[in-house]
Amino acid sequence: MPALPDGETPPDDGALPVSAAPGPDGGVPDFGVYLHVPFCRVRCGYCDFNTYTSAELGGGANAENYADTAIREIELAAGVLSAPALTAAGMPARTVSTVFVGGGTPTMLPPRDLARMLGAVRDTWGLADGVEVTTEANPDSVGAADLQELADAGFTRVSFGMQSAVPSVLATLDRTHDPARVPDVVRWARAAGLEVSLDLIYGTPGESLEDWRRSVDAAAALEPDHVSAYALVVEPGTKMGAQVRRGELPLPDDDDAAGKYELADDMLSAAGYRWYEVSNFARVHPADRPGATPRHASRHNLSYWRGQDWWGIGPGAHSHVGGVRWWNAKHPRAYAHRLEQGLSPAAGREVLDAETRELERIMLGVRLAEGLDLASGSPAVGGAESLTGGRPTVVQELCDEGLLEAGPAAAGRLVLTRRGRLLADAVVRALT
Question: What parts of the sequence cross the membrane (predicted)?
C-alpha cells in the first residue's frame, strides 16, 4: 500500500482554516460523503488500496465495532463544518448530495451496519432530494436479502467488482467469486430497485483479446446502468508486483491495453453506452441530451473530477473542502485510537494555492467528455481566442495531433478524441 503524502500537521480538533468557506462569487459546491470500509476477506494480488484481512488486523480495529468508530468521525465532521469561525466566514449548511461506501469490501459488514452509517450521515447533514447512495460489493459478498435491506435503508446504487467473466483471469487477479454468480447479483439488485454498475479490469497477464471481448460482452448483456473499465496497473509492493519482478508474470503491455480499451469503447457504444470519463461509461437514457453527461453517470465520482467538496470517513480516507485537502491515519487501529481520544483522525493536510487548484482542474476536468472550460484557462493552456489568433498554441498543437476535438476547442472547451483518451496523461502534461 502506498504511503500517505507529506503535508502539514493538522490541528487535533480537525478545525479548518476560514479560507475553506466558499467565497462570495465562487458559488456553493456540492457536498458528498465517502465512507471507507477497510476490510476484505482475501487481499487481491493486484490491490494496493488501504484494506486489511482479519488475519492482518489481529485483535484490534475489528469489523464488529467499525460502524461506531465511523459514526464518531461523522460527529466530529459535523462540529468542524459548523464551527462559528467557518460559519461567520460564509460556510453554508449543506445537505449531502452523494454518499459512496467503498473499500475494501463494504459488504463484509452486515447491512444493518452500513444502514447505521448512512443513517448517521442523514441525521447529521440531511440528504438532498434525489441523493445518490452507492456501495461497492463483491459478487460473492451479498445475497438477495442483503441487497433488499440496503435498498430499504436508502441505498440507491450498487457497484459490483465483476473484473472479468473468464475464470483463469479472475484466478490471476486472486478474485474469489464465480463469474456465474454475477447475473444473479445483478438480478437481485434490480429486484430491490437499485441501479447497477459493473467494474471491469483489462490487461491482466495472460488475458487474450478474446478473453476481454467475452468479459465486455457478458457485462453488456446484463444491461447495467454503468460500466467502469480500468487498465490494470501493477503497483510496487503488491503480490502481483512481486510476481512481475520475479518474472513469474509478464508486465502488462501498453499496446495490448490500448487495443482492449478501443474494443470496449466500440462494444459498449454499440450496446447503448456513452463514455463520460476516460474509464467510465453510462447507459444512455432516452431523455439524455446529445453531448450531455448521461443521467446514469456516477454523480459521486463526478464530484471528484469537478472539484466539489467531500468528507472522507475512515482510515486513510482523503477529504477536500474549499481548497483544503487532508487525509486520515492509515491503519484502522491508529484511526480508531485517535477518535477514542476525542481527536481528529487526520494525519496530514495541505491548503491548495491557486496554481495547484488550476493544475488539478486541468488534470481532472480534461478526462471528462463534457470537456474542460477554457474561459478561466491557465496561461500554459491559453484562452480559446488564441486558437484563432494566428499563432500556434499548446491547444492547437494537441488538436493537430488528433488528441483534442478541434470544434469544441475553438468554442472554448477541451474534449479528448478517442486517441486523446488513450494518451490522456500526455495531454495533461502538455497542458500543464
Answer: none
Closest by CA position to 322, among listed 114, 23, 15, 4: 23
pLDDT band at 42 (very low <50, low <70, confident <90, very high): confident
323 and 372 both lie in a single domain: no
Q: Are residues 293 and 417 in the same domain?
A: no
Looking at the structure, do residues 58 and 22 belong to the same domain, yes or no?
yes
- Residues whose CB falls within 8 Å of the CB of residue 164, separated by 6 or more in sequence, listed in order: 170, 173, 175, 179, 200, 201, 204, 207, 211, 215
Residue 38 C-alpha cell reads as: 477497510
Phi/psi for 108 (5° steps) reads -70, -25
Convert the pLDDT of each residue in 59-110 to its tens digit. Answer: 446 788 999 999 999 999 999 999 999 999 999 999 999 999 999 999 999 9
13: helix, strand or coil? coil
Question: Does residue 44 belong to any structural domain of this protein?
Answer: yes
Distance CA 362, CA 365 (A): 5
| Burial of 25: CB neighbours in 10 Å, binned 0-12, 13-18, 19+ | exposed
- For residue 278, what are the β-bridge partners? none
Burial of 119 (0-12, 13-18, 19+ CB in 10 A): middle
Nearest to 405 by CA among 417, 395, 394: 417
Q: What is the mean pLDDT of the chain?
A: 92
The sign one gets for the Cα dihedral 285, 423, 259, 246 is negative
Phi-psi region of 317 (alpha: psi -120 to 50; beta: other; left: phi over 0): beta
